[in-house]
Specification:
Number of strands: 25
CATH architecture of the largest domain: 3-Layer(aba) Sandwich
Shape: globular
Number of domains: 3
CATH topology of the largest domain: Rossmann fold
Radius of gyration: 23 Å
Structural class: alpha/beta
Strand content: 15-25%
Number of helices: 19
Amino acid sequence: MGTTTKPMTDLEIAKRATLHRIEEIAQRANIPEEAVEPYGRFKGKVNTAMLTDRPERGKVVLVTAINPTPAGEGKSTVTVGLADALQRLGKQSIVALREPSLGPVLGLKGGATGGGYAQVLPMEEINLHFTGDLHAITTANNALAAMIDNSIHRGNPLDLDPRRITWRRALDMNDRALRNVTIGLGGVKQGVPREDHFDITVASELMAIFCLATDLSDLEDRISRIVVGYTYDDRPVTVSDLGAQGALTLLLKEAFQPNLVQTMEGTPALIHGGPFANIAHGCNSLIATKTARQLADIVVTEAGFGADLGAEKFMNIKARAGGFAPDAVVVVATIRALKMHGGVSKKALHMSDPEAVQRGIANLEKHMETIRAFGVEPIVALNRFVTDTEEEQDVVQRWAATHDVKVALTEVWEKGGNGGLELAQHVIDELERPTLFRPLYDTETTIERKIETIVQQVYGGEGVTFTKIAREQMKEIENNGWDHLPICMAKTQYSVSDDPKAFGRPEGFTITVREVVPKVGAHFLVCLTGDIMTMPGLPAHPQALEMGVDEEGNPVGLM
């Protein structure tokens, strides 16, 4: 009787990899030795101030996806595998990714370092504390909160209304018990009692600022413009009014330098910053992307979740702020996600169902239309899973041939860069064509019109409904002169609509905007839809329950 070999986990595969010292990776990336500060043997910080004489020449390849299943569709894996495949084809490439948040790592989704033989390493260190960037952002965020409450306690010279403090404390953890709290209890010496709230660190405005600032001066300027609350007569109070911008910038000075690591095949990787895409703008730091463009011919980066979230914000917010355009876009699709969008339940995704794949392609088609609306022709990466059948894959291939779409069967999880060569060649071909990229809206148009443009052109909805609170907030935003800011939609990742159960390509729906929150330092307006919360909770069986260390101190159970 034969035995079945259990497939290795991502962590087990990563442990078998041979890592190169960070000095060698820096040399491969053409980074001067004096511009890299090692964090151990295999991680380093890049001093971007020593690269200012280099032009930003690298072309940007954005990897996005269709609406995912709860388990994720391997977008980071494809991003890493594509960078490795480009190296195999003789192209100088760098991969630029977000830093993992401990919330998903310990919760349901797991880590964010890719998977199989398309990973960034050392995966266990990157997925846990890494170089401490998220801890630094958390500390700076809460230092500001402490200074706000101290100012109120010390006589409230800024006349802050404790009922209208908008700055929230932060923690890089899924902790629903902290969504709404009361602070300052215990008597006069303990501060002024008031209601407060926590966000997960990756949803904080400070994280967004960290990821959109171009240098330390810009970082401090953006921090100074953060609105922390309002006075009793409705005047906004900023960090500049508190005089705290210098201290917060100091706390972030080291973290602001991009992190250099490597893929399993030795391709240089910059991993820096990590805002969520369903709450914030979902892209790695602008300074890391700009640095990568100074170092490589091709920069492969990703934006969180589907094209309706991360890619839309990458192009309307990040590319606009950075003054560059994506030169190619890859849309990751999987058979299992297409089946779910075709009406198959999560429990039945392992069963072959070509008809469901055909129905689910409507979701892929919508995301293709979205990318084309920005003036870029997308390429489809069909990320292969072991449960896929040839009949199901053929459905996608026939659809692609009929609609003149470039599609590549991608097997980077199993084969590393060698499994992404077809995709890489499609990308190289697309990079030879001129880009016609353009943002979807002019920032000077009205708030309502900008939101409507996103809803109609990206989601395929009929229109927008605004709650009374949202309309009052929009009026206040206009009165304060912030209505010219770009829009950052906070929406479910599982559907193009604001209903997480509306799979496929729903039609005839409207999006309800319940709040419009100005993030003046980040330079965008957050529009809250559906039941999106800025502090997630843990699932019934969090991944943390499977984690630990072995007798030699090595991690186990880390996805």
